[in-house]
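Go through the following before class.
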Amino acid sequence: MKVTALNEAELEEIFSRSSGPGGQNVNKVSTRATLRHLPTNISVTVQDSRSQSMNRELARERLLAELQKREREAINLAKQSREKLRRRRETHSK
């Protein structure tokens, strides 16, 4: 399964008020974006920008990157286990 895009039906978005610097905008506008991928339950929260739409886009980018990273890790783990099994078979067949 190659993850190249996010399926909107599998996402849950939550917006809340940010913390930290940003002045009155932070106190009035819900700019923090939390995005959760429902099938894997992976969640990312972004409050880098004062703009809700910018944080929303950044959250999507980071979630996609995290899903791709986990997919690569799963592929590498499967490859390592195949190699281990292959090495074990070679030593037992001699």
About this structure: The chain is about 50% helix and 20% strand. Residues 52-93 form the longest helix (42 residues). The mean pLDDT is 87. The radius of gyration is 20 Å.
